[in-house]
Amino acid sequence: MLFRAATADPTHPTDPTHPTDLDRAAAYPADGPLPALTAERIRQELASNQFRPEWIWFAEDEDGAGDGELLARALWWGRADSVRPIALDCLQVRADVVDPAAVAAGLLATAHAAFGTLPSYNISLPRDWRTSPALVDAVAWRREAASRSGLSSEIERLRYEWTPAAEVPAPTGRLIFRKGTDEEFLDAFVRLSTGSLDLHTRNELRSTDPEQLARQEIEFYLDCPGERSWWRLAELPDGTPAGLAIPSATPYHRNVGYLGVVPEQRGQGLIDEILAEITRFHASEGADRITATTDTVNVPMAAAFDRAGYEVTEIRLVLESPSH
């Protein structure tokens, strides 16, 4: 079996009827119960430089060199300016392959070695996926393949969306929002990490101190398509720090980003006020969709999204390296 990346050029440039690697990637059939990306979506992502030939990998039979039969396909995603892929967006193994986990594990391990990094793997699922035996099986071999290739840590997240069909919340005056300095935001991120229910934060704090993690979080959000000028500190009317609101964006939609209440002010419903501020900000900018995610175990945050009119659109299973 051969594992290889796609090439941007036709394998047989003198034969216009022979498909290129990118044609083969786009035309790969959607085997199994997990929805696959459409050919149109793949071409759009290639055109925006968020998919790249070197981030599209195949498992082929031994003929290889563009002539072998495709047994599996993997597509990694990154931002338009990313040096390396950020996440595995789609992994498929042909339905008649006897051991899909083994084929997928070999494909992922070979690609990871070429990338020099272990991008996470995001699997999008319906909320009731555990009631479908076919989906359970499809997730099981993907989990096994991911674990064998170094992605042995798992987080399950709820993906939410707000649309203008939901009400835009009015300010209540319980909190005041203002711009802040980099130092103030660093301090707020540090304080929010204490007692956080976010699994990524808790996992990172096992090997990273709060200030280092805060700097990493700030760097991440500065690198997102959202603007630094959108960020706000949240305070009580007397100036007491209460939390922060980081409206952000993805390459596709406006996004909630990051929000939280400092430990000493938790339990008073202030998370609703901070989420409302982010929603108002994006709505005032004409956003027709605001996306958000939270861990399924973060029950208070999920409840806040529910109260604010955000709707669950899918479950996102994130498989990543334990040291991610």
Description:
This protein has 324 residues and is an alpha+beta fold. It has two domains: 2-151, 3-Layer(aba) Sandwich (Aminopeptidase); 176-320, Gcn5-related N-acetyltransferase (GNAT) (Aminopeptidase, 3-Layer(aba) Sandwich), CATH 3.40.630.30. 32% of the residues lie in helices and 25% in strands. The protein has helices at residues 21-27, 39-47, 100-115, 133-148, 182-193, 199-204, 210-223, 270-284, 299-307, and strands at 2-5, 56-60, 70-77, 87-93, 120-125, 153-162, 176-178, 232-235, 241-249, 254-261, 290-295, 311-320. It has a twelve-stranded mixed β-sheet, with helices on both faces. α3 (100-115) links the parallel β4 (87-93) and β5 (120-125). α1 (21-27) crosses α2 and α3 crosses α4. It is elongated, with a radius of gyration of 22 Å. The two termini are 30 Å apart.
Count of extended strands: 12
Q: What count of structural domains? A: 2
What is the percent of helical residues? 25-40%
Largest sheet: 12 strands, mixed
Q: Just give the CATH class of the largest domain.
A: Alpha Beta
Spatial strand sequence of the major β-sheet: 1-2-3-4-5-12-6-11-10-9-8-7
CATH architecture of the largest domain: 3-Layer(aba) Sandwich
Choose one word for the global shape.
elongated
Give start-end ranges of low-pLDDT stretches: 12-18
Per DSSP, what share of the residues sits in E-state strands of 2 or more residues? Answer: 15-25%
Terminal Cα span: 30 Å
User: What's the gyration radius in Å?
Assistant: 22 Å
> Which fold name fills CATH's third level, the topology of the largest domain?
Aminopeptidase
Structural class: alpha+beta
Mean pLDDT: 92
Assembly state: single chain
Order of helices and strands: EHHEEEHEHEEHHHEEEHEHE
| Number of discrete helical segments | 9
